[in-house]
Amino acid sequence: MSMLYQRMSQVPVRLGGKTAIKLHMGDPSNVTHISPQDVRILAEKIKANGGEPFLVDTTVLYPGARSTPKGYLKVARENGFGDFEVVISEKYEKVDGVEVAKEIVEADSLLVLTHVTGDMSTGFAGAIKNLGMGGVSRKEKRKIHAPMGPRHDSSKCIACGECVKACLFGFLQLVDERLNLTLNDCPACGGCVKACTTGALWESSEARKKTFELLARAARAVVSPFEGSDVAYVSVLKNITEFCDCTKYVGAFVCEDIGYLTGKDPLEVDSRTVELIHTRNPKAMNFEAWEELKTIAINYWR
Ligand code: SF4
Ligand code: SF4
Question: In the chain, where do the E strands start and end?
Answer without folding.
Answer: 3-5, 18-22, 52-57, 86-88, 92-95, 98-101, 109-115, 117-119, 123-125, 151-152, 172-175, 178-181, 201-202, 231-237, 240-241, 253-255, 259-263
